[in-house]
Amino acid sequence: MKEKKFVSYHDSINRITENLSGISESLFNSGTQKGIVQDVFSPDVHEKILDLFLEINISFVSRLNRIIADDIKRKTDKNFETRRMEKVTAYICSNFSKKINEASIAERFGYSTGHFSRAFIKINTCTFSVYLKKFRIKEAEKMLKETNLPVAEIAYCCGYSDCSYFIRNFKEMTGKTPTTFRSESLFYF
User: Fold this and answer.
1) Distance between CA 104 and CA 114 in Å, rounded?
2) Going along the chain, which residue ranges are E strands?
3) Biggest alpha carbon distance in the chain?
4) Which among 48, 54, 70, 176 could bridge 180 via Cys, Cβ 3.0 to 4.6 Å?
């Protein structure tokens, strides 16, 4: 198995520049030796073509520099990851009732699953699954307080397809079953 050799940014730019220069030189040198360029192009057209190759080379390198600088800035911007995670959490808030998982969210927002997991924990101080569970249970608490919907329907509205699983998660997070939580909430109003 071949080992990948790390090539620095400057080495890459130099190679590209050399290749573009080499193409123009070989085109005109080989043509000049055979007399093709001299027969087809006048010296001023030959010079314009060389200038065009140089301009293309400079433009390409300049654009490449901007792309790389933007990428470096984006990756080093301390707030970039926070803003990106704010979009993720906003998406979760809007779609918590749907079937969502870490892999689908990571893909949706352009992360690898591992990077997403690390970034999510760094910003939110808990895993994606814990965050989603807490959010769903908080929404269920609101619905239990504010509506008379059956527990099974609340479970479904909060993204749970299995009511028993919802009840277990609810009790794990609150220390009470949904029915007990609702009856105690009504008592305190």
Assistant:
1) 12
2) none
3) 100
4) 176
Whether residue 4 has pLDDT greater than 90 = no
As a whole number of angstroms, the distance between CA 152 and CA 178 comes to 10
**Is residue 49 classed as helix, strand or coil in its secondary structure?**
helix
Q: Is residue 76 packed enough to be buried (19+ CB in 10 Å), middle (13-18) or exposed (0-12)?
A: exposed
pLDDT tens-digit readout, 80-136 = 788 889 999 999 999 999 999 999 999 999 899 999 999 999 989 999 999 999 999
What gap in Å lies between CA 77 and CA 72, rounded to an integer?
8
d(CA 131, CA 133): 5
Q: What is the value of pTM for the model shown?
A: 0.59
What is the SS3 assignment for 189? coil
Q: What's the alpha-carbon Rg for the chain, to the nearest Å? A: 31
Contact 131, 93 (CB under 8 A): no
The pLDDT tens digits of the residues spanning 5-61 come to 545 656 666 676 666 666 656 655 554 555 455 556 667 776 777 777 778 877 777
Burial class (CB in 10 A: 0-12, 13-18, 19+), 155: buried
Which residue type, as a one-letter code, is found at position 61?
Answer: V
Residue type, 3: E
Distances (CA, A) of 140 to 49, 147, 148, 174: 70, 10, 12, 11
Among 22, 10, 161, 14, residue whose Cα is nearest residue 98: 161
